[in-house]
Amino acid sequence: MGLTLRIIRIILCSFMVFIACLFFTGVLNSNLGIDRVKTIFDDPNIPDSISKHQADARYVPYTLRKIIFNQWVYSLSIVKNALNFLNIYNLNKILLIINLYPIYLGFLKSKNKWLLVPVLFGLLAIGINKMVDARSASLALLPILFYYYAGGIKFVDRKIYLTGLGISLLFLI
Amino acid sequence: MNKNQKIVGILIFCLGMLIRIYGISWVPPHLSNDEISIAYDSYSILHTGKDEHGNSMPISFQSHGTYKAPLYAYIGTISNYFLGNSEISIRLPSALLGSITILSLGWLILGLGGGGTLALVTMTVLAFTPWHIYTSHMALEANIALFFLITGLACFFNKKIIISFLSFGLSIWAYHSEWVLVPILICALTLIYKKYLLLNKSFWIGLLLFFAIVFPIAKDAYIQRNSTARANTEIIIKDPGIAKVLKNPNVNMISKAGVVLDSFLNNYSNYNKLGYLFFDGLRLLPKGDPFTMGLFLAPLFPFFIVGLFCIKKYFEKNYLFIYVWIISSPVVSAITLGSDNFVRNLVCVAPYCLVIACGLVYFFNKYKKYIRLFIFINLVWFGYFLILYFYHFPRESGEGFQYGYKQIAEVIENSNYKKVVVDPRFGPVNIYAGVPHLYLSYFIKVNPLELINRKNTEDGMFFDKYQIKDINWGLIEIEKDVLYVVPVDNKADGEAQKVLKIIREIKLPNGHVEFLLYTHI
Predict the structure, then answer these.
(1) pLDDT tens digits, residue range A61-109?
(2) What residue in B sits closest to A75 (Cα-Cα)?
(3) Where are the domains of chain A?
(4) Is B490 helix (H, G, I), strand (E, B) or coil?
(5) Cβ separation of B279 and A76 shorter than 8 Å?
(6) Model pLDDT, residue A29
(7) How many inter-chain contacts (A to B, CB under 8 Å) are there?
(8) A44: Cβ–Cβ under 8 A, 6 or more apart, which residues?
(9) pLDDT tens digit string along B146-183?
(10) Cα B59 versus chain centre, distance
(11) What residues form DSSP beta bridges with B425?
(12) Which chain A positions have a beta carbon within 8 Å of B290's beta carbon?
C-alpha cells in the first residue's frame, strides 16, 4: 500500500473513532449537533482563571502574562482528562486490568501499530468531555483493543494471565 | 560511581537543598493546623517535658481529635532549642531530612544495582519534584518518615542490615502510613532474599532491634486504644455508604467484601491517576483552577509509562522487590478515607521517581539527540512551578493555613492589654474553627504550663490572659483595656459597635481582610 493511501487510512480511521467517541459520550447528539455543555469548553472555571491570573501575575509584563496564562490551558485539561480516564478502576471495569497484558503483547507483535493513532484520537474526544461514563466512552475503542488482544493472547504466560484474571475478576465482583 | 558522578551527585543534592530551604518561613504563608500542633508540642516538651495536654513524654500526641506520631515533635525540640519559636525552627528538620532523602535515594539505587547514571537521574527527578519540594517545605511527619524509610532501604541494599532496621523502626515512630507499609516491605524483603537473610546474623539482630524500637508504639497503641483513633476513624469501612452496607444483615458476605474491595480499588486507582500525578494533584491554586500543577512535572509522564516496562532491564536481581515496593506504596492511602491526600501518599514519591528515571535513561540511551529539548522543556515547566509555588500559592492559600494568627500574636506582643478575647472562627461566614490558642501561645511564647492548666468552661477556654470563645456581640460585656479578635464576618454590631474601635485589620496575602482587632474607645 502506498504512503498516501496509508495516511488516508489512518486519517479516516482516526476521524471515525473520534466522531464515534464524541457520539458515545453524548457530545455529539443524534441530530449531529454538539452539546457544548458536556465539554470542557463550557467550564466557566477556565476563562475565569485565565483572566484572574492575567490580572494577578504582576511579576511579569502584561504581554508576557497573556502568553503564560491563555487558552493553551485547554490542551492541558484535555490531556489531563484523557489520562485520568485511563485509570486502573476504569480499565478493570472496561476490559479487566489483566487484559492489558495480551493487548500490550498484541500491540508489540502486530504489523498494524498505526491503529494506536485512532486510539489517541478517541482519547482526545474523551478528554474534551467534562465527565464521561467509562463503559460508553470506550465503546469506540473496543474493536481496536480486541484486535490487539486477539493478536497477543496466544503469547501470554498462562500462569500469570490466569492469576491476574482471578484478581481482576475479584475486584470486578 | 566515579569521581565526576559523585561531584554531580553533590551538586544535585545542594540544588535540591537550596530549593527546599529557600523561603521556608513564608511558603506556605503560615504554619498549618498540623504544623502548629507539632511546633507547640515541641516547644512544650522542651520546656516542661509535657505535651499540650499535660502528658509526660507521650508516645502518641493528641491533636485536633486525633493522634500524631511522636518523632517529629521530639526532633522539633532540638531546632526549637537553637532557633526558638518560628516557622523556620519547626520546618527546618523536614527541609533538611527531605534534602538528605535525595542522597539516600541515590544510594539506594546504587545498592539496588542501578548504576551511577540511573542513581543520578533518580536523584535529579526527586530533587526537582514539586510534590517532594512542597512536603519538604512543611513540618510534615510524612516527610521525615519517608527519609527514614528510604534510608532504611538504602542501608539494606548496601548491606548495612542493622542500621537498616533501626531506620525502619524510626520511620514507624515518624508517621502512621509506615505502620502498615514497613511491615509489608520487611516481609517482602525477607521472602525475596530469604536465602541470603535467614543465614545472616545481622538480619536477626536487626529484626530484634526493630521489634525493640517498635514495641513501645505497639504497646501504647494496644493499651491506649485512643492512640489508634486515627486508624479507627479514617479507614474506608467508616465511609457512611460502606458502613451502611456492612451493617445490613440482608447483604451477604461476598457482596460486603465486594463493596469494600471496589472502594479500595477506586481509591487505589485515584491515587495513581496519571492526570492526578502529572497535571493537577498538587493543589497550589484553588480547586478547579486549571493552571495548577501535578505532583511531578507534566513532561515526565510518558517516561513514567516507559519506565514501568523497563525496570527489569536495569535491576535484574532486584526488580521483583521494586515491583512490590511500587505496588504496595499506595495501599495504605487506598485503605483510608478520601482520595487525594498527597501527604498520606508521599511514600510513593520515591518508587515513582525511580520508575520515571528508568524511563528517562531507557529513552535517552536510544534517542540522545532529543536530550537538550527535553531539558529545556522541563526547565520551563519547573520555572512555571517556581512561579506558582513562590508567588501564586502563598497569595491564594492564606486562609487554608489559618493565616493571620501569627500577625495577631505580633500585635499582642507589642501591646499591654489586661485580657485578650479571641473568636476562633474564620473563613467565609465563619465556617471554619481554628486553633488560635496554639498559635498565640507559640508565637507569644506563653509559659507552656499556662496552656496545660487551661480551663475549659461554657464561656470558652481560659489560659494566661487569653479567652477563646465564639463572640456574640449581643451577649458579650465590653470591657476596657481588653483586645477583641474576631473574623471579618463577625463585625461588631449593636451596642458593641458604639463603644468599640478597630485598631487593626489583619489581611491575607491576597489583600482580603481576615481578622478585625477591636478595643474599647
Answers:
(1) 888 888 888 999 999 999 999 999 999 999 998 999 999 999 999 999 9
(2) B290
(3) 3-29+87-172
(4) coil
(5) yes
(6) 86
(7) 70
(8) none
(9) 999 999 999 999 999 999 999 999 999 999 999 999 99
(10) 19
(11) B433
(12) 45-46, 49, 73-74, 76-77
